[in-house]
């Protein structure tokens, strides 16, 4: 209880501030309408009512976003082009495929790096430097180039997602596979364990906490990659497309609903990875 | 074909050289540690050039590095204008505002454990969300020019810096705080003499994460609408015209700017937290 109360308070404060901001930002339109109809400007209580449910508000109120979110997920056929479940699934499938590719590649390269000194010295500085680069900027190019080669839909977005999750996983895994200390490595050496045995019985298990930490970073980055990857093709499908079409047509409620859907998806994906982490570490006796 | 063979040969030779170098004593020196990755980078460029030329890959799919380099040399004024618009105006002003706001918020909630317990989980949660999605909203509110990009950057960098600063301010142990109490130091004295210096490694961690986020935010926000200048604008426009060498030139500038920005913050960190174990080799 002592943990939940502060969080709820903060969330309540945010919602209240949001309503105040909505009244303030949407008031201009109400005054404008009143001036055009040549009626006197509405008083404060009337103004609040008029700012709550505009069709294209500058800032939609929380309940408008909530209603739109429920309407576009539960309120219509999943196959409908207006359904956020449909668009969300398009984005999630690209995210997961890309995450899978990026994670696998990252882990494999990390294994290569810890076993080969030349590879370590050549690749690692670049892998670390690449984290400071806005990789997302190449998204439009990947989409268009693959499109001109006849590859469309899921794969180009997945490649961007893979790129974004690849580097955090690589760096985290290299750190994790190196985490056993000299004492433990020496012990395995006294058992005359082979390199492969050392890897499977010591390095891999002890890298798990590092792996899961970077998986959480990686899956959040993958989702961002998939969403941004949906922008250059024009508003076809996916949460990014909903954001873009909303901004084309001034549908602010739609933008906010897509934004919250993306936030929910991100939270769910990270939570799933967190859950797997908890279960795995517990089974391995590493729960903290 | 000769180009492909040449690049493969170059690859093999460079790799053999790197293997030799990495087992020699040279890599223990500072210069040696730079030489190996540099050779690897050059090898990548040579292989790229050789494969593109040898297999006649059309320039609309992958231009060779030499073409990109030539384009950079020709288009320097455009690149500089884009850099100024996106980086100096959009990313940097947003970065300063966002980090400043986060820092002040962290100080403001520092005295209230209740607010901290509430804001930290929320901040941690928000830091994992795809915040770039607010870009269309900011473009609607603040217009196409750099103000909307700065606004996106402010929101993107706010939470990582906030979370790191708050956990940094909690990083002193009770022994040290007790010592300050025995000196009868006031809250502000303790803050400035003990807790802020102790929080510096954490704050810089947040600031370093924020450098990359700032550049990403400024570039992606331009995908939603921008004036006819800026790195994100140029990338989308040139992709549409299939001028991929210009796109790669912008990406090179973005990569350089990102690394330089990060490096600058890391350098300041090194100067200011010279006492921290991670900075003393």
Low-confidence stretches of chain B: none
Number of strands of chain B: 0
> Gyration radius of chain A, to the nearest Å?
25 Å
Structural class of chain B: mainly alpha
Count of helix runs of chain A: 11
Tell me what portion of residues of chain A adopts beta-strand conformation.
under 5%
Q: Largest beta sheet of chain B, briefly?
A: none
CATH architecture of the largest domain in chain B: Orthogonal Bundle
Domains of chain B (count): 2
Biggest interface pair, counts = A-B, 59 and 65 residues
CATH hierarchy class name of the largest domain in chain A: Mainly Alpha
What average pLDDT do the residues of chain A reach?
A: 84
CATH evolutionary superfamily of the largest domain in chain B:
MetI-like
Helix content of chain B: over 70%
In angstroms, what separates the terminal alpha carbons of chain B?
49 Å
Summarize the structure.
The complex is a heterodimer of chains A (288) and B (281). In chain A, 77% of the residues lie in helices and 0% in strands.
Tell me what you see in this structure.
The complex is a heterodimer of chains A (288) and B (281). With 288 residues, chain A is an all-alpha fold. Chain A folds into two domains: 4-59; 84-283, MetI-like fold, CATH 1.10.3720.10. Chain A is built from eleven helices and no strands. Chain A has helices spanning 4-36, 44-52, 62-73, 84-115, 117-130, 139-148, 154-177, 182-190, 195-229, 239-249, 252-283. Chain A is elongated and about 90 Å long. The mean pLDDT of chain A is 84. Chain B has helices spanning 2-23, 30-54, 65-74, 76-108, 113-127, 135-142, 146-169, 174-182, 187-222, 231-240, 244-272. With 281 residues, chain B is mostly helical. Helix content of chain B is 79%, strand content 0%. Chain B folds into two domains: 2-57; 72-279, MetI-like fold (Orthogonal Bundle). Chain B is built from eleven helices and no strands. In chain B, helix 6 (135-142) packs across helix 9 (187-222).
């Amino acid at each position: 209880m002592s943990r939940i109360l502060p969080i709820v308070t903060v969330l309540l404060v945010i919602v209240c501030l949001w309503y105040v901001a909505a009244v303030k930002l949407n008031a201009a339109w109400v005054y404008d309408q009143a001036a055009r109809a040549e009626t006197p400007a509405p008083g404060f209580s009337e103004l609040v009512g008029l700012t709550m449910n505009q069709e294209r508000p500058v800032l939609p109120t929380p309940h408008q976003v909530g209603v739109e979110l429920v309407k576009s997920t539960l309120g219509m056929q999943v196959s409908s082009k207006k359904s956020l479940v449909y668009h969300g699934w398009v984005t999630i499938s690209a995210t997961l495929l890309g995450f899978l590719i990026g994670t696998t590649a990252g882990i494999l390269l990390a294994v290569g790096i810890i076993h080969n000194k030349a590879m370590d010295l050549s690749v690692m500085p670049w892998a670390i430097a690449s984290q400071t680069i806005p990789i997302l900027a190449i998204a439009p190019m990947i989409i268009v180039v693959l499109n001109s080669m006849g590859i469309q839909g899921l794969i180009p977005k997945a490649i961007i997602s893979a790129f974004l999750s690849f580097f955090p996983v690589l760096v985290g895994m290299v750190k994790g596979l190196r985490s056993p200390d000299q004492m433990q490595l020496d012990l395995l050496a006294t058992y005359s364990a082979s390199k492969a045995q050392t890897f499977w019985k010591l390095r891999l298990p002890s890298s798990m906490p590092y792996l899961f930490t970077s998986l959480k970073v990686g899956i959040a980055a993958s989702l961002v990659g998939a969403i941004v990857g949906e922008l250059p093709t024009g508003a076809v499908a996916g949460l990014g497309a909903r954001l873009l079409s909303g901004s084309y047509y001034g549908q602010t409620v739609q933008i906010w609903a897509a934004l919250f859907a993306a936030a929910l998806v991100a939270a769910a994906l990270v939570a799933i990875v967190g859950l797997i982490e908890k279960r795995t570490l517990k089974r391995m006796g590493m729960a903290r | 074909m000769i180009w492909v063979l040449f690049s493969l040969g170059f690859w093999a030779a460079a790799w053999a050289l790197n293997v030799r170098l990495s087992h020699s004593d040279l890599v223990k020196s500072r210069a040696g540690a730079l030489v190996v990755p540099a050779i690897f980078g050059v090898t990548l460029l040579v292989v790229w050039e050789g494969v593109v030329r040898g297999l006649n890959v059309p320039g609309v799919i992958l231009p060779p590095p030499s073409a990109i380099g030539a384009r950079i040399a020709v288009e320097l004024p455009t690149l500089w204008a884009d850099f100024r618009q996106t980086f100096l105006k959009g990313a940097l002003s947003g970065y300063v505002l966002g980090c400043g706001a986060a820092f002040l918020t962290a100080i403001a909630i520092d005295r209230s454990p209740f607010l901290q317990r509430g804001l930290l989980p929320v901040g941690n949660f928000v830091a994992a969300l795809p915040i770039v999605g607010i870009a269309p909203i900011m473009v609607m509110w603040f217009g196409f020019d750099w103000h909307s990009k700065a606004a996106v950057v402010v929101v993107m960098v706010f939470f990582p810096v906030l979370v790191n600063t708050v956990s940094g301010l909690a990083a002193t142990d009770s022994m040290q705080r007790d010592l300050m109490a025995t000196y009868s130091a006031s809250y502000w004295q303790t803050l400035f003499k003990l807790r802020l210096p102790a929080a510096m490694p954490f704050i810089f961690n947040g600031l370093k994460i924020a450098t990359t986020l700032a550049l990403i935010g400024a570039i992606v926000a331009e995908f939603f609408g921008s004036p006819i200048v800026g790195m994100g604008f140029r990338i989308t426009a040139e992709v549409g015209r299939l001028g991929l060498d210009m796109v790669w030139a912008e990406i090179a500038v973005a990569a350089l700017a990102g690394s330089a920005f990060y490096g600058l913050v890391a350098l300041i960190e090194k100067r200011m937290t010279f006492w921290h174990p991670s900075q003393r080799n």
